[in-house]
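Quick start: what a row looks like.
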Amino acid sequence: MALDNGEIIVGEKAYYQLKQDPENVIDSIKRIMGRDNSDPIVQWQTQHLSYKIKAPSQGKEDGLVVILGGKEYEPEDIAAQILKQVVKNAETYQENQGQKTKITEAVIAIPAYLNDQQRYAMQNAAKRAGLEVKELLYEPIAAAISYGFKPGSDDCQTILVYDLGGGTFDASVISAIGDWFSELGKAGDLWLGGDDIDNKLIELVKQKVAQEEDLDDIDALIARMPSRKQKRLIDSFKLVAEQVKIDLSHRTETQICIAEPLIDEFGSLIFIMPFITRSEFEQLILPLVDRTIKICQQAIEDAGITQDDIDVILMVGGSSLIPFVQQNLKQVFGYDKVVVHPRPIYAIAEGAAIVAAGLVDKNLTVSRNCYIEFPDDPRFLLIQKGEYLPLKTSVIIKTKADGQRFINLKLFSPDEVENQPNSPFIDESIGQIYLALDKHYPKGTEIVLIAEIDEQNEALQLTAHLRNDESVRVSCALGRGDQDTAIAKEVEELIDQFNQEREFTIKEYEEVNQLAGEIIQATNLMIGDNGRIREELRKVALEKLKKLKILSSRKYNSMSNNPYDILGVSPAASKDEIEKAFKARMKEKKRHPKILTAARNKLVKNNEDRLVADYLLPALPPILRFKRYDISELDKPTPELKLIEEIENENLDEFHAKVMADFNKSISNLL
């Protein structure tokens, strides 16, 4: 997508804008959809892009935007514009065929290895384009349907789809019989495709120019170029790299000619016109091709079969046309098994069309594991890779405190494809689960969290209810980094601060929990079906958040934290007096029960220790300290007491000082 005199253009015309206005041409948008600007892989990818990627200036807490014509666009907005153009093209074609219809539904093909966050982004892009998503169809199964669709046939084939596209690589093992298709296993790499081959070619070109011109640091020269010239040069590299792949598919050598010259430190022009041989190109891409083969082998292993069980290796995607890629696959899997789809560029679209027409039955599976991070189980497996769709699973969650209204849990999906050279093994965040109870419930209240993925393979849906009463629904949502997540995180921080830094009354405790629950209930409904903010609910959440901040910052009166003051008794109070005061303070409800209970326990212990000391000290020549919590033991002629310390060569004053120091330390620990 690009801008041409302020007008949005899409497709080939936009692609060739790279020469004139590279900063305002957006390509490879699918790679960064559903990702965060802080993602290390995104930061690495920006080195190879002419347009700018940054964190949103407003709205989403996470995520990213691209800059086009000085304006911020979410990746979903760019994808929506592309989809609108595809719809327009299709409607024009139908009109030329004498069919005047308006397209409102779509089957959208996506890489098989996308995580839930990325599927959600693709889903929102379709909705912003005005389309109802009939299905998010995995690209490899779409290709298999295009190739193996044979209505009425009983012929069973096991197909390994090798899908090497522009931005991603997928390998899927699919069983096909007539018009029935079933996924058996799959693997993929979202950062391996034709774009990566282009990037390697660009690096080779720079190395050759540096050698020919005796340049120590060609990247530094490029970096010193005026911004516009620099970006024009980078995009000229991209256009040439595409042509090199085509030329070397039927030639042994080709020359690169880039119109934009380099400028050295003396102001001299350096023209970029190196030769590249097919041998150099093949050595360059060999590690990438080997990587695709390893991913294929992993997909076969995940399917629970052997390489010999594969009937056909079906190659699709533009980069699968490279002869060296085909040759390597044939050497590994057998010359008679490897087949290039007759229409490798259109195979996926054809398969999606067949599915849209309702002509096939199929079984799709979950692409990746999905985990919940619990305090006592940081990798609880909620959804397992390979499970068939539709899928429905659940987990029990318990409240940790009386009156708890708000629960937050992290949901993530690890990228588990082995030996990735371009990125570290990381857990990719799917979002934050937010649950909000409608009223006070006791500690240990059980909530059933239900996770579902439907047959259309849309983004994960969450619902919740009380375990002992399914009719009581619990507000539940998956925050994906938008303003709803930002508000919920602020609520969580305020509650943590309130619990750690403040002493509060029962009334205030209830007020804080109620406000927190109401805010989360509002944020859980704040994101519309197309991923846009519902402004009226955002205002409700922010207004209640303001009240919570006021309550959290309110200064309390100078309540003493001394346990004697808390219960209102003197240091000479008996155990009965302490218990009586404790019950009275509990009825008053001016201090939180946990504060009152801690004070009561401390004073009872102090009282018992004091009585023991009073009973024994006058009678013992050496100074001894005993401990016995049952004070009635002192009524016996020979009390049974536990010796805890014997102090010799110290006078009584020093002993008392030591006892008081211990006592003060205990008080500090209590407070």
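That is the whole record. The first strand starts at residue 2 and ends at 4. DSSP finds 18 helices and 28 strands in the chain.
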